Amino acid sequence: xxxxxxxxGLLLAxxxxxxxxxxxxxxxxxxxxxxxxxxxxxxxxxxxQVQDAAEAQRxxxxxATQP
Length: 67
Prior knowledge:
Elements: H1 2-14, H2 34-65
């Protein structure tokens, strides 16, 4: 029984499940999706502003409630 498991174990140990690294290629922006890309960039900028405003409001609330 063990004579069957040893080659199987060696075979499984020899297999590498990770794919080889791929070189990164700089992608050219597709003009079809340019408006969507710009909208996403604007949304990220607005999200940052909203988060900053929420943090400032949270600090003011904490300062007002502390004795």
